[in-house]
Amino acid sequence: MTKKTLFTGMLAMALVFGLVLTGCDLFNTADPQYTLTYNANGGTGTTPSSLKVNSGTEITLGKMDGASFSGWNTRADGGGTSYDAGASFTVTTDITLYAKWTLGGSGVDNQSGVDYTSHNSDYSILTRSNVNKKLVAFKGMLSEETLIGGIPAHASNHGLPKDSKLFNKNEDFPLILLTEEQYLENKGNLKALEDTPFTRIFAFYNASGTNENVYEISGKLGGDNVLYIQNPTSMNVEIRLNGINGETLGYAATGMLNTKLFLTPGDYNIFPVFKKYNSVRDEIITVYPKGAEGYAMNTQFQLGEGTSEISFNTSSYLTNQSYSTGTAWLIIDNQADTGIQLQKGGVIQRTATGIATINNGFSRTFQVDMAKVGTTYDTSAKISAYQVGTAAKLISIGNHELSVDKMYKVTVTGSANQNTLAVTEPEEVGDISLDDF
After folding, report:
1. 361: which DSSP letter?
2. Are 39 and 98 in contact (CB under 8 A)?
3. In which domain, by residue range, is 401 found?
4. Last residue of a domain, which of 281, 297, 324?
5. How many Cα atoms within 13 Å fall on the side-chain side of residue 139?
6. What is the mean pLDDT of residues 310-336?
7. Are residues 344 and 424 in the same domain?
């Protein structure tokens, strides 16, 4: 082989090998590109344009017009990472940043138009939120006309506004809650969320009472797992956690066939509780179904770890079952010369409709809860800690025992100012009527 031939062969191999390597990814060192998108998140004005840049590129975040614009967040509900407009931001993946909007001076959210102020005196109902999301509350149905107001994340004893068009008489209603994100994304079609609200809670407004019952929003809500509630019955049902007096996960009104509750992962032991307002007696009647041995009927399940959906049909709890209120009723007949209250261990008691003061000449009914023992409830309760009277003058009702599902009456007479208040012993006056159920 001549030197010329050897050189020619080596040159040909080098050219081929170079072409092959040039065509493979080994020599393709270009960085991947990602897109940053801005979302107005319900606000008005011009949104900055999206950017498509190489991974690792540092950019300056844009801004939106308006005094209430307060930066960006990685989540629409504000629960992600926040960034200021004009801040440096390194793009490492496709991402959407949502505009944040501050509250106006009146407490109205300038982004959503929802009033998040806590109305401490002239309120409709009180709520306590155990979730890290801003919620929007509606009365009875989802529409702009029934919007009550907003509840900030982790709000405690938050007073919702009292619109006289919505709150002008004694009535029970479903308190329907949406996340602010749900509300903003569906403002034009709120009815689309009828089966998938954040939750529903049975609530009651007393037009002549103080409405100091606090409706609690469970911290178990807001996850990615689904509890489907089918309620084809003629009764409203609450789903309570770990007992008939436990925290409420949600509420399905009569005839609702596909209510969804979104729950966090974990173990659940849920109890169905049926509720109804009797306008004639001005009382909220609450009952639970009992099993064969008298225990409160319940069901247990786990969500997460391979199970993301569970169904619960309330009709299976209504066939050949007996029911109990889990309480005794204590009727206070006030024939004294002033308004009085019922206290238990120094704590003022309220009726199921939220009334604490019994005016002279009136009677009010109070529920005495039975203590829980395992999955069953005691059949009687002692009332030695109960007192009646005024703040300055309280008298003991006595060491008596009340039986479950029975009604008892005491009469208060005399004058607190003259130190002549007196109370009769509890007299059994009948069974608690379950005719409403």
Report:
1. T
2. yes
3. 327-431
4. 324
5. 20
6. 84
7. yes
| pLDDT for residue 103 is more than 60 | no
pTM above 0.90, yes or no: no
258 and 219 belong to one structural domain: yes
Query: Residue 301: what residue type?
Result: F
Measured CA to CA, the distance from residue 110 to residue 92 in angstroms comes to 32
Tell me the C-alpha distance between 172 and 275, whole Å: 10
Find tokens 């005196």 and name the residue.
121
Q: Which of 293, 309, 324 delimits the end of a domain?
A: 324
Nearest Cα to Cα of residue 79 among 150, 179, 151: 179
pLDDT tens string 224-268: 999 999 888 777 889 999 988 888 999 888 877 788 899 999 999
Q: List, for residues 142-184, the tens digit of each pLDDT value.
A: 999 999 999 998 988 899 999 999 999 988 898 999 999 999 9
Which DSSP letter does residue 275 get? E
Report, in angstroms and rounded to the nearest whole number, the Rg of the chain calculated over CA atoms.
31
What is the greatest pairwise CA distance in the chain? 135
CA gap 124, 135 in Å, rounded: 16
* CA distances from residue 367 to 331, 391, 405, 410, 422 in whole angstroms, order as listed: 9, 21, 10, 14, 21
Torsion-angle region of 42 (φ positive above 0: left; ψ -120 to 50: alpha; else: beta): left
3-state secondary structure of 346: coil
DSSP 251: E
Q: What is the C-alpha separation between 411 and 409, in angstroms, rounded?
A: 7
118, part of any domain:
no
User: Does residue 25 lie in a domain region?
Assistant: no
Whether residue 248 sits in one domain with residue 191 = yes
- Residue 316 near residue 350, CB atoms below 8 Å: no
| C-alpha to C-alpha distance for 31 and 345, rounded to whole angstroms | 70
**Distance of alpha carbon 178 from its chain centroid, rounded?**
9
Is 130 in contact with 218 (CB distance < 8 Å)? Answer: yes
Q: Judge if 290 and 224 occupy the same domain.
A: yes
Residue type, 151: I
